[in-house]
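Let us practice reading a record.
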Amino acid sequence: MNFQKILVPIAGVAVVLLAYRGFGWAGVAAAVGGLLMWVLLHFTRMMQVLRRAADQPIGYVASAVMLNAKLKPGLTLLHVVAMTRSLGALRSPKNEQPEIFVWTDTAGSSVTCTFADGKLRHYELFRPAQPEQEAAPALPAAGDSGQAPPAP
């Protein structure tokens, strides 16, 4: 159960009641004004993150490897969207838990994130197989012994 959905409104009501008890109606006005400012700050941050994400293709990230390094369980979806500056490509059925989003970079690497109740629960990096490069030893050029010349 997500206690944050219960505790935040209870804390807000408690702040208003304590403000009334200590300072009367002026305290209530100050407490409600402070709570309203807090809500507006969070709303403004959310709108800024979504505005930045609107400018990018869905499911795109600059570097999937760097995103994978920054992720940790418990991050919110809004925080991950702020890090990637892009909305993730939804891979799970719509409006079902858990939600699975994928972010892919131009090299083909991708990060799959699983969110349950808006919190990151699991993430996995996928890197495409790269062709094996032949590791032939470098041969010295003709007339070169491969050693540094003697110092004068």
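A brief commentary: The chain is about 45% helix and 15% strand.
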